[in-house]
Amino acid sequence: MSSNLILFNKPFRVLCQFSAEGEKSTLADYIEAPEFYPAGRLDFDSEGLLLLTNQGALQHVIASPDFKLPKTYWVQVEGNITENALAQLRKGVALKDGLTKPAQAEKLNTPDIWERVPAVRHRENIPTSWISLQIREGKNRQVRRMTAAVGFPTLRLIRYAIGPYTLDHTPVGHWNHIEPTDDLSKEVMSFEEQKKRKTASSNRRGSGEKRRPEFQGNTIPDGKRVARRSTRPKPTSRTHRK
């Protein structure tokens, strides 16, 4: 029986969805696995590791920053990355939506990876370099914004790892079923137990609430009295003959 987790090496310019959108390539062009959905996203112009699952709790644990699964990226940047820039990435970078959390950042030798199609534009007078960047949060296009903020724009972005899972032995455009690690399974069980406790607690509070008294007589819920209609008989009016 296949597992409920898939590892996919997403190519460049592939939408992280199964539904069609214009003429853009999607996951449906590569993966035939009904009821599986991405656990987190990877931008159209980014490459690399994407996890998919058919289990809601597992999807939440992988995608949520609350569970702190580190994500490691291999990033080709414009220019020779400096130690000062790496130090800034490690400390945290101020972006428009706040300061990033401290990251692990190291200079990386050019990795032995697949050719990108189309290739990164080459400029004779501007060198490039690679870094390994590990983060534990998921701001929109965060890695690209981080490298730009320290003066080294991203040219190519590959997600190499999510927690213990890596791209090793998975060629670009290929996928395979994998098993959740023991730690990941424990996180899923803990999340499901917490969810059950919250549901049970919410149900107890709901059943223990006192009903508000219904409208009775001449009062309204805030205790004010409604003006009574007079019961005194009205004088009968006599008709006058003309």
TrEMBL record:
<feature type="compositionally biased region" description="Basic residues">
    <location>
        <begin position="226"/>
        <end position="242"/>
    </location>
</feature>
<dbReference type="InterPro" id="IPR000748">
    <property type="entry name" value="PsdUridine_synth_RsuA/RluB/E/F"/>
</dbReference>
<feature type="domain" description="Pseudouridine synthase RsuA/RluA-like">
    <location>
        <begin position="4"/>
        <end position="149"/>
    </location>
</feature>
<keyword id="KW-0413">Isomerase</keyword>
<dbReference type="InterPro" id="IPR020094">
    <property type="entry name" value="TruA/RsuA/RluB/E/F_N"/>
</dbReference>
<dbReference type="InterPro" id="IPR042092">
    <property type="entry name" value="PsdUridine_s_RsuA/RluB/E/F_cat"/>
</dbReference>
<dbReference type="InterPro" id="IPR006145">
    <property type="entry name" value="PsdUridine_synth_RsuA/RluA"/>
</dbReference>
<dbReference type="InterPro" id="IPR050343">
    <property type="entry name" value="RsuA_PseudoU_synthase"/>
</dbReference>
<dbReference type="Pfam" id="PF00849">
    <property type="entry name" value="PseudoU_synth_2"/>
</dbReference>
<feature type="region of interest" description="Disordered">
    <location>
        <begin position="190"/>
        <end position="242"/>
    </location>
</feature>
<protein>
    <recommendedName>
        <fullName>Pseudouridine synthase</fullName>
        <ecNumber>5.4.99.-</ecNumber>
    </recommendedName>
</protein>
<comment type="similarity">
    <text>Belongs to the pseudouridine synthase RsuA family.</text>
</comment>
<dbReference type="InterPro" id="IPR020103">
    <property type="entry name" value="PsdUridine_synth_cat_dom_sf"/>
</dbReference>
<dbReference type="InterPro" id="IPR018496">
    <property type="entry name" value="PsdUridine_synth_RsuA/RluB_CS"/>
</dbReference>
